[in-house]
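Example complex used in Figure S2.
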Amino acid sequence: MAKTVIAYVSRRLTVSLLILFAASFAVYVIFAFLPFDPAALTCGKNCNDPGIIEANRHRLGYDLPFFTQYFLFLKGLFFGRSFGEGAALINCPAPALGYSFQEHGCVTTLIGEALPVTFSLAIGAIVMWLALGIGLGILAARFRGRIVDRLSTIFVLIGTSLPTFLTGLLLVVFVVIRWRLIPFPSGNYTSFFENPFEWAQILLLPWLTLAFAYAALYTRFVRSSVIDTSNEDYIRTARAKGLSEGVILGKHTLRAALAPIATMAGLDFAGLLGGAILTESVFNLPGLGRLAISAVTKYDLPIIVATTLLAAFIVVIMNLIVDILYAYIDPRVRVS
Amino acid sequence: MARVKKSTSIAIVAVLAAAVIVGGLAKMSSSGSAKGGTITYLTHSEAFTHADPNRNYTGQHIAWFGSFMHRTLTAYARAEGSAGSAVVADLATDTGRSSNGNKTWEFTLRDGVTFEDGSAITCEDIKYGVSRTFATDVITDGPTYAIGMLDIPSAADGSSVYKGPYATKDNDTAAYDKAVTCSEDNKTITFNLKRAVGDFNYTTTYLSFGPVPKAKDTGDAYDMAPVSSGPYKIEKYKAKDEMILVRNDKWNKSSDPIRNAFPDRIVVRFGLAEEVRDQLVLSDSDKNSMSLDAILPTNLPTVFDDAGKPKDAFATRAINVYDPYVTYSAVNVKKLPCLDIRKAIYYARDYAGLMQISGGAAFGGDPADGVIKPLMGLDYAKVTGLEEFKPEGNAAAAKKYMDAAKSACPDVYAKATDPKRGVSFDFADTDTNKKAAAIWIDSMKKNAGITMKFNFIESGSYYAVVLDQTKQGDLSRAGWAPDWANASTVIPELFTETGGFPMSQNWNDPAYKAFKAKSDAALAEPDRTKQGKMWAELNQYAMDQMWVIPGVFSKTQEVWGSGLGGVYFWEPQGAPSFGDIYIK
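Predicted assembly (920 residues):
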């Protein structure tokens, strides 16, 4: 049993590493062959002078052959990289993903600052939407056709119809500014380790915004899944054996009905870690989503490459975790 | 009428400066200004475009950093109205001493001026700071007056033989050392210029003529952590998050007569949604806050009446004034090398519609006929040849020019009318601009058959992107104000290849050669009246070629929390009087 699990995990890890390597190459190819000159993206209005573009091309190594550049990029991930010379020398320690001339910082540092923000947003939101979505979904299924079910349908309709930027904006304008139920945060983001209360206060409305949208989807999904499972033969058998409804629901129905939720939640969580662009924008959170979207509007290629790679990395890792969890839950997966 | 007279008499300037300072101090003492507290500034931008003194080049950013962090040799007086355009001494003991027919300028540093670490600011620090302007590959986007004015030879390709402090090869450092010298006591700096510049002490109001400690210079990264020489220093600066300034305890009021340093802390909140930013100020939920951005047009009626006057509730916390800017859409002549198409765009535009979404003429301003504002007096003359202009757009005129373009420049015509290609237009990414884009698209299609494609760029980095000619689209929205009251800071800056804001790329136009020759002649013209006439003719010339689509002689609105005092419009920078704002 243990050997089988280890072999399975090893196999999945190897495949994941290969996927990441392929993703890094693909992204770097896109970076290299985009119809933009990376050297011409480093000197603002001074790029009107071709001499300056050429000097920067040499300074930043963009005049080297493609595979040499890719090798230096990979090398930078393990050993760090330097750009420029003299007082203008820039050192980016490993894992170096490049230097942003728009943000004036090493990309790894910028991502290191943005990732905890997005992680904080995602982790709080997923807890809220799973609690709300699963709870409401179960209630709606359990009391199908009754008032609870109807109310949940209204909740689902509103939640899926309202875009997150609108929900967020309404919450800020009314809850914070007009009604002053919550004070306007004194900062855009505070680390949990610095001040947990302020961390939660700043993230409360963003969590609610995301949770509202996702919980609506999960409510509908859980409701259907629980109703489908309730019609299975083994549930009827359990009921015939005289088990209470509570035991049937908790021990038999939910275990089967909620298994697909693990996959769904894993992928949604990975998507959020890649950047909840709209929510971060409305609530002014300096997370990965805003870093990425701002890089796109500014043609900031090193950040675009890095955030794309990071998103790929997160999806691969989350898939790996979900697969391993599945293997733990369902032995048939290990065998296949 | 010129707001600032060309300075040839130091005595007059000094007397005026003294009067302004005394008057200003008297005003302050009677207005109940107080020290302490935290002032919060709110903005939709994700960061300041630049914080490095050599890279600051918008009036607002110069006003901001010049008030709080970066000192330079001379500065504009802190005063309301035209008195604010007088030059006063800052780090220097006076407003400069010229000789050699205004080709040599000397400034002596005050005693007791220091950086935030307490080290004394010396002539070498100023000299090093100015030298960074020449490192055009690293220190981007800032004013380049030092390159154009200092007596340093040019290489064969027209660039300076001096490449700044970072270059290690083919760099003529000796040429720079000859052009900028320091006295033995390291207190007096001398600039040797290649041509007479009577108002060089206006040039030195730019923060790029301020000190940078060589040991702390980190090149590009200095933009995020510049060293302060003013009353505040950075405690935190993170893009998309916030900037916090705290008192610089090494700053000494006795060595800085022009800065007040009222609040204890200054916070800038970046990246706020525009509606959230406006609501925070309008609802007065933080009485000590102020927006750094223009208020959304949809919120203007809350603050002002139809005539543009603040309503009673906002009487003491809002202003609506003409600013020094002219707005326009720069035409990338390299990409739109067809005069008829450019004229068609001008006539097809629904100016009235665009003004409507800006809040109307009471808030937007008056239609511009060029890039020189009538306030420039000597340098302004009404531009002719635009008589067919109609506020709602002139479809007949636009069609006439499109018909002409069909045969004169068929390639550009085909691109402009192709729904897949069209004319690309760079806009800062704001809600108002998105509405403006809709009006442009509609009026161009309806009146000229031109397809418009919009490229929205994050507002904080808008100029850094569009000023890069490799990224600029066919048209780009822009605004420009004279650096001081001489169109020498407008025409060459906007329309010559070596200018500081050359978004038209008009050196690709065959008409450029004659224009450049005349612009050079105007720069060298010692008679101010004749020079003014030449600038007016060059403005006419640029409009004849339609190198820009003129927008408005603009107005600006500022709104702030009820807890703030000392707010007025600081004319020379076209920005609020940041340094004089205090908590009541």
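DSSP finds 18 helices and 21 strands in chain B. Residues 1-30 of chain B have pLDDT under 50 and may be disordered.
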